[in-house]
Design a protein that fits this description.
Strand content: 15-25%
Strand order of the largest sheet: 6-5-4-7-8-9-10-11-12
Structural class: alpha/beta
Number of strands: 12
Order of helices and strands: HHHEHHEEEEEEHEEEHHEE
Shape: elongated
Number of helices: 8
Distance between the termini: 188 Å
Length: about 290
């Protein structure tokens, strides 16, 4: 009896352990997989295989690297530029004498301006306006120049000329001069003033009218616009004959405008004085002299 009871007790324990094992195993499987036995572990190795490509010539490599679309675009641009370069050399773009228009000239003839411009026969795309203006400014009496170029072959030239200030009469001949001393073509309306220089003493070392004389004549022309004829002498300087009959000596030194103011203040005395003076000396305005 005792043996049967012992057997039954062991059987019960075995059943309890058998029931507990699945639960325990399930719990272990959910929490962490069972470790792999060392004997079953397989070492994995990564191997790199080298791929050998067939060798290529440098030319084929260079050709493979070319972007043929870019090459095509570049070639098209070159062709277009070449066509344009050829097109501008055609006759419609060539400047002809009748496509050059000159305006503003009064004393210079249009053909003189065109000859100095040197644009007839040139391609309109090669005409440089600044260079043309520089050539025209070298003409006598030219004050300023404007040059414009219009397609297909037109060149417009607008000239502004100096007005002549004085006709300088000297032994070698006569010259028309502007305010800046440049010569003006003897054509059109004459200057408002004449300077008679019988010995050529009013010129400088270069043969040009001295600057101080030009400046004095400019002032006189503004103050006494009715006075036309003037003279120059080495001792008298600049002088003129008044309508009333006396000579007015202005010299070369000092402010000529101030001298003319003194002359205006003496007018009443000059008119009423008897006998009439022959000379009004204003070379030294501090001491005006009547003779």
């Amino acid at each position: 009896m005792a043996g049967r009871q012992a057997t039954k007790s062991s059987a019960r324990r075995n059943k309890k352990s058998a029931k507990a094992q699945p639960t325990e195993r399930a719990t272990q499987t959910w929490r962490q997989p069972p470790p792999t036995p060392r004997a079953k572990m397989v070492r994995k190795e990564t191997r790199t295989a080298r791929v050998t490509r067939p060798s290529m010539s440098p030319v084929r490599i260079w050709l493979a690297r070319i972007n043929w679309l870019q090459v095509a675009i570049f070639a098209a641009l070159i062709a277009a530029a070449g066509g344009a370069a050829y097109g501008i050399t055609l006759e419609p773009f060539r400047v002809a004498p009748d496509t050059v228009e000159v305006t503003g000239n009064r004393r210079l003839a249009a053909w003189e301006v065109m000859d100095a411009a040197q644009v007839a026969g040139d391609n309109v795309f090669t005409v440089q306006a600044d260079a043309v203006a520089d050539r025209l400014l070298a003409l006598p009496g030219v004050k300023s120049v404007g040059v414009r170029v219009h397609l297909p072959n037109q060149v417009l030239i607008d000239v502004a000329e100096f007005l002549p200030l004085v006709e300088w009469q000297k032994p070698e001949g006569r010259l028309w001069l502007a305010e800046d001393g440049s010569s003006v073509p003897i054509a059109g309306n004459p200057p408002a003033m004449i300077l008679v220089d019988p010995r050529g003493e009013a010129g400088d070392a270069n043969g040009k009218l001295r600057k101080n004389i030009r400046e004095d004549l400019t002032v006189i022309q503004q103050v006494l616009p009715e006075q036309r004829e003037f003279y120059y002498g080495a001792s008298e300087g600049l002088y003129f004959r008044a309508p009333e009959g006396w000579n007015v000596y202005l010299g070369e030194e000092g402010n000529v405008e101030h001298k003319l103011e003194i002359l205006a203040g003496l007018q009443n005395e000059l008119i009423t004085r008897e006998p009439k003076p022959r000379k009004v000396d204003l070379r030294f305005p501090e001491f005006p002299t009547l003779e």
